[in-house]
Amino acid sequence: MRKLRQLKEATFRICRRSKFSTAILFSCFFHVTSPAYAQNACETDILVGYEHYPPFLIAPNGPLEGGYDFDILQALGQETGCKIKWVSRPWKRILQELSSGRIHIATSALMNLERQEFVYFSPAYRFAERGLFIRNGLNTSSFNSFLNSKLKLGLVSGYLYGEILDLDAPALRNQIEYANTPALNVLKLVNNRIDGTVEERAVFNYHLKQIDKKNQVIDTGIILQSIPMHLMISRKGLPKEVTTKLFEAISNLSQKGTFRVIARKYKEGES
Hints:
It is a single chain. This protein is of the alpha/beta class and about 270 residues long. The protein is about 40% helix and about 20% strand. The strands form 2 sheets. Strands 3, 4, 5, 6, 7, 8 and 9 form a 7-stranded mixed β-sheet that branches. Helix 3 packs antiparallel against helix 10 (about 260-270). It is globular, with a radius of gyration of 20 Å. The N and C termini lie far apart (about 55 Å).
């Protein structure tokens, strides 16, 4: 037993330090953890950071009311027997507290190497389309055309845009204006304070519908990214056996079709 425990600890140290693919990371979890080791996996609450990010996390007045990601985490809670506790935070603070381990999970996240230093990424549980939206009265044939026109572009602070934009490019510094949330960029766009914004289509359309200003913006139809979204699980915040249990539950729910059922529910709700 002592040798087995030492093998587990050594393997987890390797997993934590590596930039392994999700498949190999899964192998680390599943092959070094015995069922007996994970029996008491949920003695503490799992803290999930959130902010208003509809239709995935709907919390216009602070308390979480529901959403696609809410249903995903509730299903994970039921599958694992763990209690899910939601914690309201701005996105940048969620990232900070994932790094420190004060928050255990965040949803709807893009994968990159910097984040892999402090979180494990789940397999993709949905795909997001990011598009270009511009204020009424403008016309553009491409994203490059928009940028070359020196028009003001609204982005969200703390979000990843690496494949779309080089945010450090000197030519863009005076062209980009940051907001704390997608909702603020929608408001700035309809009030002509910015000329365009890049946003996940479902998120942008939800906010636009709430303020009933559809005639004041143009959906260019330009799709800049179709990207996988993941859960981020803190490397510090949870015991290894709880993290193992979460990954097993994600795999089980995917195989059972639970994620597809949840996705269909929200797709039907858009019509």
